[in-house]
Specification:
- The chain is mostly beta strands and about 425 residues long.
- The protein is built from 2 helices and 35 strands.
- Strands 2, 3, 4, 5 and 6 form a 5-stranded antiparallel β-sheet that branches.
- The longest helix has 11 residues.
């Protein structure tokens, strides 16, 4: 498949939105590519201009931007301790919210809020980025509350609770799978017997189909790719990767992959006919997609001192090279897609120090021939990445790292890039900076 055909397939599967928007997690086509032009080549002295900042509650939910509005979810804690322990669930009381802000000014347009007790580890707030589709926005809370809201006034159109309606267990780190719009369907990672993946009618919330069973549903958002002449819905859970027909849930193929602690988090990423998925515990696989039918061939599996094993941030693949943060070492790595060989590694984009930092995080977004990396330090980095090395062009501080992770202060939230701006949040505020040339 040519790159043009692949991009057209992604666009077909994604909501139809202007290129300047960032209507969902990882951008217009969920591939971490920011297609806008006219973006600055380097940061000005003192960094890019801050356009606005608005107070916010806690959460890992990134912003979505569409049609001049910003959508972001947070949590206002009333009672309970938020000390982060990966092996312990915290009990909190408070309100979960979805906020709509004016993208030009940050002024609140509306808010949707509801009382929600938490019992999850790392309980700062919602994890899933809202998904905007036309006059509706879909928001998933940490305890399994799914809402379809009107984008103009925030009023609920329909709602679901995955725990009550499907018997889904609340994952250790909460519900994380960013909802996916495919045609007339909204596909979600749900959980429960026979309902790991569920497709709803996006307008009414009526269940259209459900599929798969596993002990834990994991955290990976659904994604769609086109290969072998068909659209394929990819569901990666703690037992493996499944390719389904997105229209009815029937299965095309499956490949076993078992990350440690049930941490199936990052959706499979693609470059040409290569498809990569991985997670903690040397769990990684590179697949080759069949061209003439929906199927795959295994190219290689991860082992010690090879590949990369992502956690918080989904890696990107481009021109035969895989780029991303390794969850065990905190290194940002380049890996040869054909062999799994590590080409280079550095801590500069993650924790900025030459030392191991478990779950060191940098969210990568490709813009033209360079990358914007949002570091857990709250810095936005402009860099050139190639098989030959990491070249940092500049960096600018956008936010303070207010969260706690593995004993250090971090920002673990994917930013949005839209209308020549970047929108980023921590546990105290959301900010907007100008990135126009």
């Amino acid at each position: 498949m040519t790159r043009l055909a692949y991009l057209l397939a992604l666009l077909f599967a994604a909501p139809l939105v202007p290129a300047a928007d960032w209507p969902q997690w990882m951008g217009p086509t969920r591939d971490g590519v920011w297609p806008e032009t006219g973006i600055l080549e380097q940061f000005p002295a003192g960094g890019p201009k801050k356009l606005w900042a608005v107070d916010l509650g806690g959460g890992y939910s990134g912003p979505a931007v569409a049609n001049g509005k910003v959508f972001v979810a947070d949590y206002l804690r009333k009672d309970g301790e938020t000390k982060n322990d990966p092996g312990k669930k915290n009990k909190l009381t408070g309100k979960e919210r979805v906020l709509c802000l004016d993208a030009a000014t940050g002024k609140q347009v509306w808010k949707h809020e509801y009382d929600r007790d938490y019992e999850v580890s790392y309980p700062a707030g919602p994890r899933a980025t809202p998904t905007v589709d036309g006059d509706r926005v879909y928001a998933l809370g940490a305890m399994g509350d799914l809402f379809c809201l009107n984008v103009n006034d925030g009023k609920p159109v329909w709602s679901k609770n995955f725990v009550k309606e499907y018997g889904a267990p609340v994952p250790q780190w909460g519900f994380c799978g960013h909802p996916l719009v495919y045609g007339d369907l909204l596909v979600c990672l749900v959980g429960g017997e026979g309902s790991v993946a569920v497709a709803f009618d996006k307008k009414t919330g009526k269940e259209v189909w459900k599929k798969l069973s596993t002990k834990d549903q994991g955290y990976c958002p659904p994604s769609v790719t086109r290969a072998g002449g068909v659209d394929q819905l990819l569901i990666y859970h703690p037992e493996g990767i499944h390719s389904l027909n997105p229209k009815d849930g029937s299965e095309y193929w499956k490949v076993p992959l078992k990350p440690s602690y049930g941490m199936a988090i990052n959706h499979p990423v693609r470059d040409g006919d290569h498809l990569f998925a991985g997670g903690i515990g040397n769990a990684a696989v590179m697949l080759k997609l069949d061209a003439d039918r929906p199927g795959v061939t295994e190219v290689w599996r991860g082992k010690a001192n090879t590949a990369l094993y992502p956690s918080n941030a989904t890696p990107l693949m481009a021109a035969g090279t895989l780029y991303g943060a390794d969850c065990m070492t905190g290194e940002f790595r380049a890996v040869d897609a054909a062999t799994g060989k590590v080409l280079w590694k550095t801590h500069e984009p993650t924790n900025g120090k030459d030392a191991a930092a478990p779950h060191g995080t940098a969210f990568a977004v490709k813009n033209g021939d360079r990358y914007f990396l949002f570091s857990e330090t709250g810095e936005l980095i402009l860099a050139k990445l190639s098989p030959g090395g990491y070249e940092e062009v500049g960096r600018a501080k956008l936010l303070e790292p207010t969260g706690e992770g593995m004993g250090r202060k971090v920002v673990w939230t994917h930013p949005a890039f839209a209308d020549k701006k970047v929108f980023a949040r921590n546990d105290k505020q959301i900010v907007c900076y100008d990135l126009a040339k």
